[in-house]
Amino acid sequence: MKAAVSLFPESMIKLPCAAHRLHLTIKDLFNPKNISLDLKTNEYYIYDYNDEYQLKKIHISTEKMNELQKMNSIKSNINTIVSKCKHLVGSFRFSEQLTRKFKEKQKELKIEDPIKLIQDVGGTVLLICFYQLLPTKPL
User: I need a labelling partner for 88 at 20 to 30 A (CA). Which of 3, 34, 52, 97 fits?
Assistant: First the structure.
């Protein structure tokens, strides 16, 4: 894509693709950071995007490394939950009996808008789902 954009004349304004940036941002939100140790300098570093959205090696402090490890733990827990949910929904998708019982239970509980299960969602949809779970009024 960058090669194609580079063929345009320099006088033309080149705007980065907003959808691509959004995808990278959401992907970054849910993926744990790989923290490495530079053996020459004995410093920790990660690869992260700079302001121009280029992947760069960034040296980090020990405090930042500890913070990232905590965040990685949270992200791993979220990814585990999402994976288990996908597996559970997959069970419904491949079992006519489970699907029928699920629909019957919704009717029994008088749910006005029946719930439809989606097995695999991209990061954008996942982020929207988390956003919708947030309270609309201050607690």
Answer: 34
